[in-house]
Amino acid sequence: VQLQASGGGLVTPGGSLRLSCAASGLIFSSYSMGWFRQAPGKEREFVASISRSGRSTPCGDSVQGRCTISRDNAKNTVSLEMHSLKPEDTAVYYCAARPAFVTGEYQYWGQGTQVTVSS
Question: Is 28 helix (H, G, I), strand (E, B) or coil?
Answer without folding.
Answer: helix
